[in-house]
Amino acid sequence: MFFSLTPCLRLLTGRRCLLYCRSIVSENSDRRAAVDNAVSAFRSICGEDGISLGEAVREQHGKDESVHRCCPPDVVVFPRCVEEVSALAKVCHQHRLPIIPFGTGTGLEGGVGAVKGGVCFSLRNMDQVLDLHPEDFDVTVEPGVTRKALNTYLRDTGLWFPVDPGADASLCGMAATSASGTNAVRYGTMRENVVNLEVVLADGSIIHTAGKGRRPRKTSAGYNLTNLFVGSEGTLGIITKTTLRLYGIPEAMVSAVCSFPSVQEAVDSTVQILQAGVPIARIEFLDDVMIDACNRFSSLSYSVSPTLFLEFHGSEQSLEEQVSTTEDITQSNGGSDFQWARDAETRSRLWKARHDAWYAALALRPGCKAYATDVCVPLSRLPQIIVETKEDLIESRLTGPIAGHVGDGNFHCLMVVDPSDPDELHRVHLFTERLARRALAMDGTCTGEHGVGLGKQALLREEMGPLSIQVMQGLKDALDPLNLMNPGKILQQVEL
Amino acid sequence: MFFSLTPCLRLLTGRRCLLYCRSIVSENSDRRAAVDNAVSAFRSICGEDGISLGEAVREQHGKDESVHRCCPPDVVVFPRCVEEVSALAKVCHQHRLPIIPFGTGTGLEGGVGAVKGGVCFSLRNMDQVLDLHPEDFDVTVEPGVTRKALNTYLRDTGLWFPVDPGADASLCGMAATSASGTNAVRYGTMRENVVNLEVVLADGSIIHTAGKGRRPRKTSAGYNLTNLFVGSEGTLGIITKTTLRLYGIPEAMVSAVCSFPSVQEAVDSTVQILQAGVPIARIEFLDDVMIDACNRFSSLSYSVSPTLFLEFHGSEQSLEEQVSTTEDITQSNGGSDFQWARDAETRSRLWKARHDAWYAALALRPGCKAYATDVCVPLSRLPQIIVETKEDLIESRLTGPIAGHVGDGNFHCLMVVDPSDPDELHRVHLFTERLARRALAMDGTCTGEHGVGLGKQALLREEMGPLSIQVMQGLKDALDPLNLMNPGKILQQVEL
Asked: Domain named FAD-binding PCMH-type: which ranges (chains A, B) (predicted)?
């Protein structure tokens, strides 16, 4: 029998998640005993400094940047290499203890919460950039390497890794959650940019999804294991290395901003820009509420209307043409105040509103917390869903300025919520479920880039249908028959 | 216990493949009885015209365009809709009969051979283009729709589907084999361009890998089932619909050709073109032997040396810059005879050698058959592997001109083989195994785009390692526990 978690409410209000599962040590007393037995083995694997039972450390590893409540693990381990990860996993396997991988904790759907207790594998000590091959446009990194650290490392090579979810996340964590962000319209998401993964499975065995050390730019050799683990949110294995595609740093960049009379005109412009073959690098949408918040927060004076923030990458000459074509398209759709800039400082100033959107939203209601919804629909459905969502926000008496990766049809309401107000939390929960169902009714998905985590298991079931969920469960059972890997995420648990 | 198929030899010489499997009706007499029992059920599902037991039709469906020997199915069915596919699959499931999906039969690794007999599902009667959404850049097609048919259908929309493996293959078949081809360097392979699949599983159940009717441009909702079925070569289910990404037809195109003193200089140029951010649409390599063959076949006069064929897509203005940058790069690497053309007729003439490469290779030895190898390595390893491979060809006394999608590190030897010469066949077999192992030793793959099929099961095992193969086998067992779906492909069979 399946049941809904309705996590927003439960997690925000601190109610205990009721999870049932088949194989892990689920009784608290039994689990504590198993942890006690395992701890000395953990110590012998990664040393005295490689393990922590302290409350503060456990609390710190029990939550991400979302509003999902903290679920601390029983113990945190800090392996230094894949062999240690494997050895630790074998101990967990032997004692039937849950394993929860932890990168930087910048997730947005509660993916690191130890809802069944168990062992958090913090991978921060594995922070080496390995095997850079500039001429092959690829690099391999350990899970402690963040995207900013990688790009700093690559600084003098003429190469960069463009996937940018905003946070300075671990690249292996980005692979685990199938992250994307503002550059996806041109460079793709993690799905298109991961070439190979090293993964430790629940029983401690180490596999390489495309074969050890392999890094061809394309392959049709057997089942695509790489993309099975990308987006698996730690529920199938621990990603201990990822090989990534790199790109040449563009010769030049131009940023631009343009206001529109309505969402429809902003989206129409986006479709026409893509159809014209403009290789746009970023095309971000902010609604009037978001722009107003940004104006207040950063003392800007943008027109309070639907706005596109754009970025173009290319040669000096091609940029002129890209900007000119784009300006023509925006003007023919009623766009006004088209501003653009080439030098880094002015570009940064122009995009300030977009970069500060999260903080600008928070500043609307000091003392509140933020929760970002995340749906994605076909481009043509964006105007309708945004208009309906804005009406719903007003009717629900909620604050949720909208920012979106409009080139992908992906957008977020940055919900600003008073966590001490149960009535408001209830309204937020109902609103986010309606928003996701609105996306599903428009051929879209309940999550474009944040993942399912704790929050969207019931919605995933609605999105996929029972048979596809059965297939997913079959894959999970094949790879993790004891349900040790990050239990309670993505798939709902079956009650015995 | 696993054993090697060494298929090149066995299939070319007509020796029976010895396959053992666990659940399908494997004894010929038992299987014939099962087929006899199933036939009336098949007839009641798809009518008298929807089933064929004739030898000619069965032979036609027992082989693809490779040199793998014909393995005819016991019966061919021609369903007209997914419901019929599902009903037919249920009958097969009930009678434990193998199911082999058949698109256009243009595969190159023997993927349609009924090595365990069974029922071929020819999907040619399901040939509708469905649900075109021009403003969302997506379309859904049935498995009888080929890539040329789709692009003809799209003619007046300003959109096209760019993945081009050469053959006019079924788009669902291209999804099943993870096809790519000449445009992949810019537009990606099928992996990047399939948004959703409708699949009939071995038990007849119908699933949608991204949820029914869904078509967001990106998603992180649960396990990536879409990319599990892309490249699964009919071994996990029958693809009955695929939703594809479309692109705006470029405003203009330019083709170019350039000769180089050595493979190294041609590859160095490729790396520098990519690093410079030139959004090259095609960059194809032909070696001196291939160029010589093309010159003879098409009365051309290209310099008999390593040659790049290039194609640029974009606006008129951007093309000028792309061509100019590329010409500078090729010249700085010793490239000569840089020719380029903008109008369709001259472009076609310029690229004639590349387009006719297959026939030019065959014309080297009239009466012979062609067999295309298919390996892919990191770009920087291309010069070494091509040089070593050319030496090997000479030492092995074999004819195998080389053509490659050099932007991806993927290349083919177009082996021209006398099928009546067992010694030559033996040398071809040993050569192709050495070539694949050379690619594996250079961090590459034994197949970039043709798939594993019958020919590369042992090589796949070497490429992935035993643990990753176990994971693949676990996924296969989870989705097709009776091993009914296209048995004998991708994974080697376990002997009881």
From this structure: 69-249
pLDDT at A26: 59
pLDDT, one tens digit per residue, over A146-184 is 999 999 999 999 999 999 999 999 999 999 999 999 999
A211–B463 CB contact, under 8 Å = yes
Q: CA–CA separation, A432 vs A374, rounded Å?
A: 9
CB atoms within 10 A of CB B367: 9
Residues 62-81 of A with CB under 8 A from B: none
Asked whether residue A93 falls in the same domain as residue A160, the answer is: no
- The β-bridge relationship of strands B194-200 and B206-208 is antiparallel
Q: Mutation target for A interface from B132, B220, B273: give the one with most A CBs within 10 A.
A: B220
Are the C-beta atoms of B246 and B129 separated by less than 8 Å?
no
Query: Under an 8 A CB cutoff, do B443 and A215 touch?
Result: yes
Whether the per-residue pLDDT at B440 is higher than 90: the answer is: yes
Interface test with B, best of A156, A186, A208, A220 (most B CBs within 10 A): A220
Contact A85, A238 (CB under 8 A): yes
> The domain that contains A161 carries what CATH number?
3.30.465.10
Give the model's pLDDT for residue B493.
65
Last residue of a domain, one of A311, A330, A357: A357
**Structural domains in chain B (count):** 4
pLDDT greater than 80 at residue A12: no
CB-CB neighbours of A380 under 10 Å: 18
Judged by a CB distance cut-off of 8 A, whether residue B475 touches chain A is: yes
Question: Would you call A471 an interface residue with chain B, using a CB distance cutoff of 8 Å?
Answer: yes
B136 vs A379: CB contact, 8 Å cut-off?
A: yes
Domain enclosing residue B231, as ranges: 129-248
Number of neighbouring beta carbons within 10 Å of residue A461: 21
CB atoms near residue B480 (< 10 Å): 22
Report the mean per-residue pLDDT for chain B. 92
Residue B167 domain flag: yes
Same domain as A153, residue A116: no
| ipTM reported for the complex, 2 dp | 0.94
Structural domain contains residue A467: no
Q: What is the pLDDT of residues B125-141, one digit of tens each?
A: 999 999 999 999 999 99
